[in-house]
Design brief:
252 residues; 11 strands; binds adenosine-5'-diphosphate; binds magnesium ion
Amino acid sequence: MNIISVTDLKKGFDGLGVLKGISFTLQKGEVLSVIGPSGSGKSTLLRCLTQLEPIDQGTIEVCGDTMVTTDSNGIVQYASKNTLHTVRLHCGLVFQNFNLFPHMNVLRNITEAQMHVLKKTKAEAEVTARALLVKMGLEEKEKAYPCQLSGGQQQRVSIARALALNPEVLCFDEPTSALDPELTGEILKVIKTLAKEKMTMIVVTHEMSFARDISDRVIFMDDGLIVEEGRPEELFNRPKNERTQRFLQRYE
Ligand code: ADP
Ligand code: MG
């Protein structure tokens, strides 16, 4: 079953093309890594999928719902408010810089959206939040504020916050690139655990050995296009495209 299906997605800023016709699908339980040089459009792709950016052209389907499509006259048609809301809940996003609410403690960071968006009671939301904090190894930290936590701990809170809404797919935008190298491992371990549990995920990352390790499929993007796509052992060991080869050489 397709969780996400993207067809000919185009997006530009100020007339400059950033995504120039992206098409791919993501199956339930699949882990897809997206690699590529800085500026190739990886974050923009995730932001279009999670409705943080409007698209210029193309079709995005999520869990069988058409979130947005483009008619034969080239007019972009977004779904109804209700459908967009449902689709938004299906796609969680974990940001590079955590984006926690600085004035709320850890527990409230995780309960807030559950109460407002899922209409859970405070008690229900706290049960979910506490279970996720245990899973993230942060059960001691529920009263702490983000500024009292390490980057790795903050990122684990933001993963818990995303999981609390029970998404069908979780997108990560370079989840370790704001972290000191010694804190990177703890986040990669959490993502690995989620992969073992068959969480459907899209992971934008510069951690090549990690991408090779966890992914079912890898996409290499350059200049707003998918240049190459394949199983990790193919794409990393035998890249077919010369641009993929040149990019991967930098990580050897
Ligand atoms: P990546 O995540 O692969 O580094 P991005 O998707 O962040 O790439 O950016 C792709 C291009 O789009 C870059 O040239 C960037 O400057 C441009 N861009 C991204 N967001 C905006 C924005 N809000 N306004 C203008 N240009 C943007
Ligand atoms: Mg980016």
